[in-house]
Amino acid sequence: MRKISGNFLPNTTPRAEFEYPSHIDPESLRLLPNKPGIYIFRGDNDAPLYVGKSINIRHRVLSHLRCADEARMLTQSRRVEFRRTAGDIGALLLESQLIKELQPLHNIKLRRKREMCALRITAHGAPEVVFSKDYDFASEAGIYGVFSNRRSALETLRTIVADHQLCGIITGTETGSHGRPCFSRQIKRCRGACVGAESIEEHQQRLLQAMEAMRVIQWPFAGAMGITEECDGWRQTHVIDHWMYLGSIDAANVQIERPKKRCFDIDAYKIIVKPFLAGQLIALT
Question: Can you give the residue ranges of the GIY-YIG domain (predicted)?
């Protein structure tokens, strides 16, 4: 085992010493900055093992080295690579992008490029499951929730129907014909749109209100927008178009990769929608 002085580790006394695995390149650890960005644990033949992000790269990587639960990954690791960003948003976006590109062995949750599906209200007022290969979730109106499979979407819809006393026949969660009571109506858990006790318009309004929290916001801009972050005088702008992360630019880097095919990425959407709602997206000049 190698040792490194305590000033390499945050929250330690100056004379404290920390032992770290000798099979991990010490120079790659020494160069880790106390700044935002992503880090990549790499194994034999530079294979990507794990991608993570932090507002303090050095502190986060060294916390991995102290974690007994990550012994398998650490045993496989040979060096640690890092890439700086000017803030946490950039680190989140870059982490999400690299996990999908590199397919690291130990990032199981986020590494798959999933075929997304969602709920959409039809012209007849009934929800249906639609897939991102058929609809542009970033531009299409009336897209609710984003799910990894059809079953998950239908389970969510059934929960909404039950919680809000909606009609199973009208929402398509059970078979039957209009004019006959749905099962929930028979047990007094439906307000009766199926038998005319509630108007279709009222039922539709309640359905939309119940699903509003899941509504995917349509991209409201004509083209790409930016999110700017700054760290120690370094200004970085993350370029976003239709909720897709295209890359980050600064004074030395003006190249942005535009995908040939637009593909809705729920992970990027969840990261970007927060600064969007906070009014942080700016026009690119």
Answer: 34-108
